[in-house]
Every structure is written in structure tokens, then in C-alpha cells.
């Protein structure tokens, strides 16, 4: 059967944006700031030139007093220009950076709101955390500081050198000697250290992973008496890191010392003074010419270190831009340009097939119908495809083949609003927001009145627990109150009551802290089921004896379907599972329990 609307065309996915594309919106402002920084850097050298020229004017015989005043005025003006240009450049880059950070974070959140829910695996969520946090900050540093720092680090020594070449080109070249040797040493040093940096970073990654593994699994590790072993793994990673660090320091130590020495102001001062003295003694320059070299020669090398750091910032920012661009290029859930409205709440899966990546299909040719007001349970051994089937209905991902319709409309032809008004879901790992309890319940309907919220909480058997809190419904989750897994699940059932969607997808919890909590949840679910269509991932068979339809999955296919009685009578896979004779991986506990999901 197929009542499907034509599948929506896949939304165009832009190629991942690089650094240039990401900062394009603020490029003109960055260029302006760099130009202003160039002006500031030129102006920064002028007062030193002025002092040197002042020396010349004062030592002239007779003193060139008109020239003295001109030089003083130019030096003073340069100070003002430098300050103004620097303040303007800093202001422009920081405003541009603020706009960029805001627009990138908005774009990220906007894109994340349109990617399939199934995309949010642990790995992808970590990438999102890095992109929204550290990576956007790395771009902040680039736009806010690095470009102008690079301009300053290049222009200041160049202008100084130009002036020194004008004063005496021979002494200028000699003054430049340590800086040139420093650059050559630095380049060799970096080339030799590249491999060491890579293994240093890898070793650092292993230490972090071992630490995280140790901390996250501490309960399991301790309860199985393996604290020593896990601790040893961490220590081994830390030892390996120390070795790599030592190897890197050994390779770079001599070069770093030589570079720091050659580029240090004190060495440059000694070097230029010594060279100038030789030139004066030889009669190649006047004693007054020593002054510019002593004043400006010192500053020739220092910006090179700053340049090294800024170039590194660009490298870091380029890698960060790659990750941000990657998240921004995540394929969106295709949306239909001509949205439809479901006519009714009948749900039909028609020959649905879905695979995760290249792997064999997790769900194959699955067809079934959820009639309005009925409860359908998905059962099967672990990995048989229950969760995948259930997650296809709220569009965690779209089927590779086949269709899913609600009220005759393909879910791909519904707007997200219409879909989530039709389908709510309660999964095991309930995520509560750091907001008040009331806001958490009213998540799907922020405009809900307090009485409606309380009524939903009451129906979900969680009202009493909330009222017992000192701040009641205004308690902030994570600050004033922490909920147990069972309580969080009841809060998410309250969300469903309030959202009032006619179709509910429910992942029955596999474990509860106490029978009382389980009974409360089963009670809440029984109330929720009244008049609604439920698709339940059932992990325990005793809870589904009275459901309208049981679908037994095996390797992604439906191998049996019917009611509890029909399936027991058929004596097939379900009957085997009930008797607990299925393979250990699929064995469901055969004990009975008073609480049940009922229609
Ligand atoms: N995110 C994923 N990426 C790749 N493969 C996956 C992913 N999630 C599930 N699978 C695979 O798809 C198949 C069906 O998994 P699914 O989680 O739907 O089974 P399940 O019956 O719900 O299992 P369980 O009862 O253990 O939760 C399995 O082979 C599983 O390994």
C-alpha cells in the first residue's frame, strides 16, 4: 500500500566552509583594521627616528633649532597618530570578532536545529561542543588579535630596517645578522620538531583518553576490583607522554636557547653597540650615527617571536575553521516545499528499509500499521532493530527505501511542527534542561498555563514528588533538584501529556531503581495510552501481554506479528522467548509482574 507523498528532494548541502569563507562577513573590517595597524606600526617607529634625528640636529654646529622643533613636532604627532590608529584598529577587530562569534554560533545552532536527530551521536555531540566552544574562540583570537599582531610584527621591523639602511646600509645589514640567523635556526628547529610535535600531541591525547576512561568508568572499574589495572593504564600513558615530551624538548632545546639569545633585546644591544663601535673606530660612520642603531636595532628582532606565535594562531584557527565548517555542512533533514497535513492519526510503515552508513540494513522491508488508539509492542533480541524502527517515526533519520505515513501523509512531507504535534517520544535517556521543573514539562508547549502543567505532572504520577520540593514547580533542575532515572522518565511522560500528540513512541526503560518507581511509570503510561496510539520498544515481555499488536523483529525483519495469545498459540519465536528458551542474547525474563502497559 502506498499513500505516500513524493519524497522531498534532499536539501542541498554546501561544501565545508574554510577559514576564508567563515570570516568573509567581517573581511572588509579586518582589512581596515590591518591597514590602521600598519599606520600605527609606522607611527610607532617615528618617535625613535625623531629622537635619533634630534640627536643629529642638537649635535650640529650650529644647532639647527628650526629642525629641532620640526622633529619634536613630528615625533609628538606620531605618538598621537599611533594611539588613535591602534585604538581604532582594536575597536574594529573586537566589534567584528563579536559579530562573527555571534553569527557563527547562530549559524551552528540554526544548522543543528535542521540536522536529523539521529545525527546526534556521542561523537558528533563532542564535535558540536568543540565547534561551538573552543573552535569559535580560536577564530575570535584570530580576528580579534592575530591579524593585527602579524601586521605589527612585520611592519615595525621593516620600517626600522628601511631607516637604518638609509643611515648606513652596511651597518644595517650587520645589525640584521642575529635576526637572520635566528629565523634560519627557528625554521630548522620547526622542521626537525614536526614529527616530535605530532607524537607529543598523540601521547597527550592518550593521557586524556586514559584519564577520561578512568574517571567515567570508575564505578565499574572499582566494583570489579580493577582500579589497579585502570590506574596502571593511565600511568603508562602518562609515562609515554613524559618520554615524548622529553624527546621533543631534547630536539628543540638547543635551537630554542640559541633563538631566544639571538633575538633578545640585550643581545641585540650588545651586538649593535659593538658593530657601531667598530664602524666609528674605522671612521666609516659618525659617532652620532650610533644612536639610531642603538635605538632601533634592538627592536628589529623582538617582533619575530610575536610573529611566530601569531602564525601558529592562524594554523590553529584554520584547523578550528575546518571543524566549524564541517558542522555547518552537516546534511539537513530534507523538508518538503509543499507541506501536507495528516488526515487522521493512522500510522503506516510501508516496506521500510534503513542502514547506518555502509553496514547491512538495520531494518529491512518492515511494514505494519498502528491503528488509532492501539498499543503496538516491538520485541526482539538485542540488535534486532527495535530502536531503529521506533526512531524512524519521529524522523531521527529517513528510510533508505519505503515510506512512513501519518494520516495518509508521508512524514517527509510534514513540517517539523506538524510532525512533532503528531508524534511525541519518551526514550530511556531522558535529557532535562537546566530550567525550572515547570519549564521542563512545558518544553513542547511553552505557553502552557500552570494548571495544565500540574495536571500533566499529576497524570504522569510525578506531581507529589515536585510538590515536596521547597521550590516546587519553580525548582531548577540540576541546581535545586536532581531527579532519578525513573523520575526523569515520568517528567518526560508529563511532557507528552502536555504536548498531547496523538501518537507516542516509547522506549520502555530496561532498569529501574525500585519497584515503586516502575509501578508509577507503568501507571502513568497506562493513563497516557488511553485514546492514543502507542509504539513501545518492549524490553520485558511481561509488560506487553495486553497490547493490541506485538511485532517480533529478527535481524531487522518482522518475523511474527499478532496478539500475545495468538503468538503463544503459534508456538514460534515469541513463544520461545516467553519460555526463556531463546538464545541468551535474546532471552527475556519470563517472570510475570503486576504492572502492564495496557490499551
Ligand atoms: N548509530 C548506529 N550506527 C551504526 N549502527 C547502529 C547504530 N545504532 C544501531 N546500529 C546497528 O543497527 C542494528 C539494530 O540496532 P537497534 O539499536 O535498532 O537494535 P535494538 O533491537 O533496539 O537493540 P537493543 O535492544 O539492544 O537496544 C544493530 O546491528 C546495531 O548494531
From TrEMBL:
Keyword Disulfide bond: no
Molecular-function GO term, any one: ATP binding
Protein family: Belongs to the ABC transporter superfamily. Siderophore-Fe(3+) uptake transporter (SIUT) (TC 3.A.1.21) family.
Keyword set includes Mitochondrion: no
Top-level taxonomic group: Bacteria
Transmembrane feature ranges: 30-51, 71-96, 147-166, 172-191, 291-311
UniProt xrefs under PANTHER family: ATP-BINDING CASSETTE SUB-FAMILY B, ATP-BINDING CASSETTE SUB-FAMILY B MEMBER 6
PROSITE patterns: ABC_TM1F, ABC_TRANSPORTER_1, ABC_TRANSPORTER_2
InterPro entries in UniProt: AAA+_ATPase, ABC1_TM_dom, ABC1_TM_sf, ABC_transporter-like_ATP-bd, ABC_transporter-like_CS, P-loop_NTPase, Type_1_exporter
Keywords: ATP-binding, Cell inner membrane, Cell membrane, Membrane, Nucleotide-binding, Transmembrane, Transmembrane helix, Transport
SUPFAM superfamilies given in the database record: ABC transporter transmembrane region (SSF90123), P-loop containing nucleoside triphosphate hydrolases (SSF52540)
GO cellular component, one term: plasma membrane
Compartment(s) of residence: Cell inner membrane
Main localization of the protein described in the UniProt heading: membrane
Name under which the protein is recorded: ATP-binding cassette subfamily B protein
Domain annotation ABC transmembrane type-1: ranges: 31-314
Residue ranges occupied by any ABC transporter domain in the UniProt entry: 347-580
Membrane topology summary: Multi-pass membrane protein
